[in-house]
Structures are given as structure tokens and as C-alpha cells.
Amino acid sequence: MWQVYSTVPFWRTIKNAVVIQLARYNPSFRLKNWMYRRLLGITIGEKSAIAMMVMMDVLHPQRIYIGDNSILGYNTTVLTHEYLVEEYRLGDVRIGNNVMVGANSTILPGVTIGDHAVVGAGSLVNADVPPYAFVAGCPARIIRYLNEEKEATPPEQEG
Question: pTM surpassing 0.85?
Fold first, then answer.
């Protein structure tokens, strides 16, 4: 864990933590998105909404990309770094257009969530989510696919 001091400057981490905490409690989507874009370098598309209490990665927030018209639910955590016993992982998080992430979900480093996907509340997203997929669980699994007409179709059965 001590490697954190050699990967990100101390004062940048402090600034990021302060901005993130101010944004977490801010009910204004417009001001919150401005803070994330201008002060943290997060890429956020048009008409995207980030709910209250969302926790963005403190060390590398600039590695988060959120598409147009997407929603991150209350108390969601988005991580771009991860400390494990023997390794340190760093990866971009890409959230596509028209994505809905349910409340209390966690998105781990290196994950891409495809356009029009839905992540159920309380999910742990540790792998890529294909476009038009509905995923849920810990870890998140594909429940069904939504086609372009928004009709539900079950995932293909393996085996």
C-alpha cells in the first residue's frame, strides 16, 4: 500500500479527495459534472447524471470515461486502481452511451460497459459488459440482453 506515494503526487491526491467529497454531496448535476470535468479531468458526455454519494477514484480520476445520457446511481464506486497482495492494477473505466448503473454498485479497474447496458443495483462489475446487456450480482453476470427495440431476450445458454 505504501507504493501509493510513488505513483501519485501527495497534493494531487489531497485536491482530488476534496473535490470528490464536495461533488458527492452536491445535488446539482450541472455543477457536479463541471467539477469532475474541469477539476479532475474525468470525461463526461452530454446529459449524463451522476447521483449523490458516487465515489470516483481518488488517485486516477482522469482514467474514467462516461458517455452521453448515462446515469450512475446513488453511492456507486468507480475505481481505476486496485492494490492486491502481490500486484498493483491500473486501468481505464469506460462507461458507454445510454448506460444505467444501479445504486450501490462497484466498477473495478479496466472495465468497459457497452452502450445501452444496464447494471443492477448492488452489483460488482469486474469484467466488461457487452452493449444492450442487463447484468447484476456479485460478481455481475449477464441476466438478459435488451435488443434495440428494448425487448428482453435471455442470454445464450452455454454447454
Answer: yes
Element (H, E) at 20: helix 10-24
Residue 109 domain boundaries: 8-139
Cα dihedral 98/102/105/111 (nearest 10): -20
Beta bridge partners of 109: none
- Residue 3, pLDDT score: 61
CATH number for the domain that contains residue 122 = 2.160.10.10
Task: State which amino acid sits at residue 42.
Answer: I
C-alpha cell at 77: 464506486
What's the chain's Rg over C-alpha atoms?
16
C-alpha cell at 41: 479531468
State the pLDDT at residue 87: 81
SS3 category, 103? coil
Query: Does residue 159 surpass a pLDDT of 70?
Result: no
Grid cell at residue 6: 510513488
81 catalytic residue (yes or no): yes
Q: For residue 150, tell me if it sits in a domain.
A: no
Instruction: Identify the active-site residue in 63, 81, 94, 116.
Output: 81
